[in-house]
Design brief:
The chain is of the alpha+beta class and 182 residues long. The protein is 28% helix and 27% strand.
């Protein structure tokens, strides 16, 4: 991808389960020439395009639950204000293929999943995590920003075949292979 187009998506939404993400329109994602290649290899296009802002809901919840109920409510209000006031602009970077065998959900069944993802540069993610960690007096790692483009796995629904990538170090552990677009 040669052009550095800055994209301004919708604002993130903090869900009741403490996961947080930004929903994307198809026009906000550049697939390069990957669509035809991925479909020939049996991959399914990710229908629910998004950028995850908080995936470590457990770490977030643990940090939040150190406070009283009243303090938690105040912190959630402040957090929503932080989410609302950042721009969340991003530039699309490289496409990578990744795969992982792991026990997803049911710990008795080993699943093999594959994905094509596009990494993105999103400066506000660092601002957000700095403010989040200050607010909660915590050390939650910054989310690895990317967009899942295509998935392939052993579940009937492609929406459940993504590979969680909560941090840059987790991304490196997946030994990503760069996909060269035309």
């Amino acid at each position: 991808m040669n052009k550095k187009i800055i994209i301004t998506p919708r604002k993130p939404v903090l869900r009741k389960d403490f996961l947080c993400g930004i929903k994307l329109n198809i026009s906000q994602v550049d697939y390069g020439n990957l669509k035809l290649v991925a479909k020939k290899k049996g991959f399914k296009e990710q229908a629910k395009r998004h950028i995850t802002i908080i995936s470590s809901a457990g770490k977030f919840k643990n940090a939040l639950y150190k406070f009283s109920i009243k303090e938690r409510k105040q912190k959630i209000i402040k957090l929503k204000s932080i989410l609302k006031n950042l721009k969340w602009q991003y530039i699309q970077k490289e496409i990578y293929s990744i795969n992982r065998k792991f026990y997803y959900g049911n710990s008795k069944i080993l699943e093999h999943r594959k994905s094509y993802i596009r990494t993105i540069e999103m400066p506000d993610i660092y601002v957000f995590y700095e403010k989040l960690n200050t607010l909660l007096n915590s050390h939650i790692p910054t989310q690895f920003t990317h967009i899942t483009l295509f998935t392939k796995g052993e579940r009937p629904s492609a929406d459940w075949c993504g590979i969680p990538i909560p941090s840059k170090s987790e991304f490196r552990k997946l030994h990503p292979k760069k996909y060269h677009t035309v």
